[in-house]
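stuck on this one:
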Amino acid sequence: IQVFLWSPVELLKLRAQLQTATPGSAGYRNPAALAAQVLRQDGVAGLYRGFTLTVVRDVPSYAMYFWLYHDIAAALSPGLHPEAAPPGTQGQVVAGGLAGVIAWLPIYPLDVLKTRVQADVKGFVCVGGRGWYSCWRLMYREAGARAFFRGVAPTLVRAFMMDGASFLGYTTTLKLLGG
C-alpha cells in the first residue's frame, strides 16, 4: 500500500537530484514544478513510472527484513522476545542492522534498475518508452552485472545504521507506551 504514496515521491526526489540547474536559475524546478512537468508530459501515470519495479523490490524485501530481524534478534538474545529486550541491546541494534543489509542485497539490482527507469527522461538514461527490460539490457551491455551494484556499499552502510536505529526506536517506543 505504501508504494502508492512512495512511488511518486521517490520519482520527484530522483528528478530533483538529477537536475543540474541551481535554485534561483531559469531552469530550476522545485518539487511542485517537477510534479506539474511530469503530469503535463505523461499524466498521472508518469508519477508512477517504476511502480511495478518498486512493488517487486519492496514486498519480498520487507517480508525478509522483518523475518530476519526476529530470527537474528532471537539468536543474539536467546529466550528473550526481541520486543521484550531492554532498549539499546545488541539484539535490537545489530539484528536490525544485519536484517537491513541482508534484505537489501538481493533486491539492490532492482533498485538500480528502478532508479534508471524513473530517471529516464526522453530516453536519455535507457531506451525510452520501451520499458524496464530494454533498460536492463542496455545497463547490462554497458557494464555487465556490475551495472546493477553501483552504489551498493554506501547503501549497505546506510541500511545497517538506519535499520539498527529503526528497531531501537521501535522497541523503545513500545516500552514507553507500555507495550
